[in-house]
Amino acid sequence: MEGKSFSLLFPIVVKNIHMSKHGSNSGVYDEKGRFVLTKFEEIFVKYARTHPDALTSDGLNKFLKSNREPKDFAGWLASFTEWKNLYLLCKDENSLLKKDVVRAAYDGSLFERMANEKESKKKA
């Protein structure tokens, strides 16, 4: 069944996103897989200090540290890997991870957006 087994291609199956919950996560999805807007906004209210709609590397690190559950090493690693990869792939020229990019990662539209941007650059 799609999204039930491990794949080296790391597909994101949005309809099964609730199965990817782990400890030390952001809480942006609840246990039933529903997006929780207040939790999403809270990330930027608390950790986007220099730019209200973007995370710096330092802000991201503080966010990750604050979400750690005690002795949840697997959850720490999962969160660190997810967020740091998002930051490395999607930060802008000022090393900022914009709020709309993070939202696109959560709603599943980010990779389509990235593919379209890459295609546009090829044509230019």
UniProtKB/TrEMBL annotation:
Recorded GO MF terms: calcium ion binding; monooxygenase activity
Top-level taxon in the UniProt lineage: Eukaryota
Family affiliation: Belongs to the caleosin family.
The protein's name: Probable peroxygenase 4 isoform X2
UniProt source species: Olea europaea subsp. europaea
Source species taxonomy: Eukaryota, Viridiplantae, Streptophyta, Embryophyta, Tracheophyta
